[in-house]
C-alpha cells in the first residue's frame, strides 16, 4: 500500500467517537448558547465566553485519560429494543439495577450524564462557586450537544455495520465545517425547563429517529457517485487525508434538508436552557457578585489536564471498537 493508500486506510479506521460533533461545532454551540441567556446571566457568561468556547471539547480530550469518560458521550438506544427510548429508567440507579452497569458503560449513558450534571450545576450556583459553575457549564454543553447527534444514538454509529464507515465524521464534522456559514442560529431566549430529564431523553429520541435517514441518504447517494467522485484527498495541517468529496458532502447535505442545522440549533438552545434552568432552580443567585474569572488554581489544573491529554488517537471504547 502506498503512503496515500495507507493514510486513507487509516482514516477509515480511526475511532470516530474521538471528536463528537467535531471540535468546530462544539465550540460554536457553547459560544452561541451564551447569547440565549437572560440579562441576569449574560454578563457573567459573556465575560467567560472564551473559556466556554475553548473548554467545549475538553470531555473529548480526556476520553482516554479519565476512566468512565467515553460512555458519557452517547447512548446506543437501539440495542435495548424498538421503543427503548421511552422505556429505559430515567434514574441511573434504576438503570443499573435493570440493565447492569457493564451494559450501560458499553452502550453509553449520555442522557443520565446530562441529568446528573444539571443537578451539579444547580448545586454550584447555590454555593456560588465560579470555578465549578464554569467547569460544569462547559462540560454540560458538550454532553447536551452530543445527545443531539443522530449517530450518537445508535450502535451503528460509524456505519460500520452497513459498509458506511466514515459517515460519523461526515455528518458531524465535515458538513458543519463546510456548510454551517449559511445556517441561521437564532433561537430566541433560553426557555426554563420544567422537566429537564424528559427534555434530554426527548432529544436522544429525536436523534435516534433521525439515524434512519442519516444512513439511508448516504447509501442512496453512494449508488450515484463512483468511488473516485465520492472521496477526495484533503490537506489537514501537514497530512493528506481521504475524506468525502465536497460534491458528495454538498449533495448529501441537500438531501438531509436542513437536518444538521436543525440539530445544531436544538443543541445550542438546549445548552442555554439547561444553564438557565440550573440557575433558576438554585434560586437565581446574583452572578454579578461572583468572581468573574476562574481562579488561578483552576487555571493551573486545566493546564495540567490539557498537558495530560494524549496527542495520538484515543484507544477504542469497549463496545465501540470501530
Ligand atoms: Zn463528545
UniProtKB/TrEMBL annotation:
InterPro entries in the record, alphabetically? Answer: PLipase_C/P1_nuclease_dom_sf (IPR008947)
Q: Where is this region: Disordered?
A: 301-322
Q: CDD domains from the xrefs?
A: ZnPC_S1P1 (cd10981)
Q: Which Gene3D superfamilies match?
A: P1 Nuclease
Kindly list the GO molecular function terms attached to this UniProt entry.
hydrolase activity, acting on ester bonds
The protein's name is S1/P1 Nuclease
Species for this entry: Hymenobacter gelipurpurascens
Amino acid at each position: 500500500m502506498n503512503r496515500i493508500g495507507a493514510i486513507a486506510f487509516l482514516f477509515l479506521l480511526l475511532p470516530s467517537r474521538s471528536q463528537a460533533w467535531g471540535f468546530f461545532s462544539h465550540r460554536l454551540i457553547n459560544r452561541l448558547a451564551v447569547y440565549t441567556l437572560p440579562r441576569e446571566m449574560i454578563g457573567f457568561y459573556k465575560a467567560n465566553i472564551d473559556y466556554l468556547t475553548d473548554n467545549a471539547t475538553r470531555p473529548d480530550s480526556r476520553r482516554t485519560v479519565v476512566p468512565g469518560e467515553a460512555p458519557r458521550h452517547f447512548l446506543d438506544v437501539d440495542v435495548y429494543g424498538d421503543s427503548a427510548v421511552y422505556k429505559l429508567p430515567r434514574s441511573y440507579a434504576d438503570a443499573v439495577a435493570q440493565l447492569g452497569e457493564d451494559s450501560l458503560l458499553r452502550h453509553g449513558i449520555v442522557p443520565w450524564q446530562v441529568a446528573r450534571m444539571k443537578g451539579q450545576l444547580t448545586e454550584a450556583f447555590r454555593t456560588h462557586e465560579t470555578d465549578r459553575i464554569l467547569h460544569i457549564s462547559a462540560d454540560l454543553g458538550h454532553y447536551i450537544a452530543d445527545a443531539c447527534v443522530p449517530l450518537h444514538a445508535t450502535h451503528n454509529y460509524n456505519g460500520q455495520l452497513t459498509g458506511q464507515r466514515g459517515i460519523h465524521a461526515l455528518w458531524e464534522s465535515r458538513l458543519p465545517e463546510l456548510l454551517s456559514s449559511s445556517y441561521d442560529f437564532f433561537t430566541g431566549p433560553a426557555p426554563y425547563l420544567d422537566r429537564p430529564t424528559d427534555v434530554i431523553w426527548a432529544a436522544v429520541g429525536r436523534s435516534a429517529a433521525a439515524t434512519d435517514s442519516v444512513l439511508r441518504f448516504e447509501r442512496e447517494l453512494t449508488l450515484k457517485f463512483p468511488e473516485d467522485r465520492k472521496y477526495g484527498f484533503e490537506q489537514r495541517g501537514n497530512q493528506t487525508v481521504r475524506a468525502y468529496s465536497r460534491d458528495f458532502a454538498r449533495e448529501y447535505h441537500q438531501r438531509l434538508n436542513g437536518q444538521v442545522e436543525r440539530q445544531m440549533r436544538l443543541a445550542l438552545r438546549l445548552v442555554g436552557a439547561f444553564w438557565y434552568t440550573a440557575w433558576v432552580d438554585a434560586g437565581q443567585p446574583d452572578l454579578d457578585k461572583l468572581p468573574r474569572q476562574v481562579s488561578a488554581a483552576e487555571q493551573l489544573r486545566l493546564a495540567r489536564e490539557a498537558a495530560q491529554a494524549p496527542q495520538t488517537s484515543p484507544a477504542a471504547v469497549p463496545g465501540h471498537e470501530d
